Amino acid sequence: MLRRACLGLLISCLAVTAQATPVSETGLPIPRFVSLRSDQVNMRAGPGTRYPITWVYQRTGLPVEIINEFGNWRQIKDPYGSEGWVHHSMLSGARTAIVIKEIQMMYRDPDPESGPLIKVEPGVSGDVIECEAEWCELIIAGRKGWINKEYLWGVYRQEIFD
């Protein structure tokens, strides 16, 4: 009896873990951030060319979040909240981020006391070099500097990488 109870508890824990960690067809995490590979990317209502085009992106490097996968198609969410399906060949693993909310200062180091480099307006994007606990280093308009994660879309708050 105790053995059955333990087995039942183990199966319940595995089911909860499986629900908490979505598994994609590619084996990559979902959700995850990527960027648009081209300046002509069709977003469709469903995963296939038979579905109507709902939007045409014209911005190479725009960060998007993959929220689902189906074969060669990725369901994405853009910085403005729109969702749809894009062929995987139109996406790049290159990490970019876009400034949101309000004008932000880019600093020399991940510290406001380090000295400002440039002001960055909402909607401006850059290549992400690395992220620490609260800051990310980006290249924007040929300048390399740091912006607080709170004002970026394209990186997760808990994400740290270099």
List SSEs in N-to-C order. HEEEEEEEEEEEEEE
User: Percent of residues in beta strands?
Assistant: 35-45%
Low-confidence stretches: 1-21
Count of helical stretches: 1
Main sheet: strands, sense, barrel: 5 strands, antiparallel
Structural class: mainly beta
Morphology call: elongated
Outline the fold blueprint.
Blueprint: H1 2-20, E1 32-36, E2 41-44, E3 53-57, E4 63-70, E5 73-77, E6 83-87, E7 91-92, E8 96-99, E9 104-107, E10 116-120, E11 125-131, E12 135-140, E13 143-148, E14 152-153
Antiparallel strand pairs: 1-4, 1-7, 2-3, 4-5, 5-6, 8-11, 8-14, 9-10, 11-12, 12-13
Give a written overview of the molecule.
The protein is mainly beta. About 10% of the residues lie in helices and about 40% in strands. A hairpin with a 2-residue loop joins β12 and β13. The protein starts with a helix and ends in a 9-residue tail after the last strand.
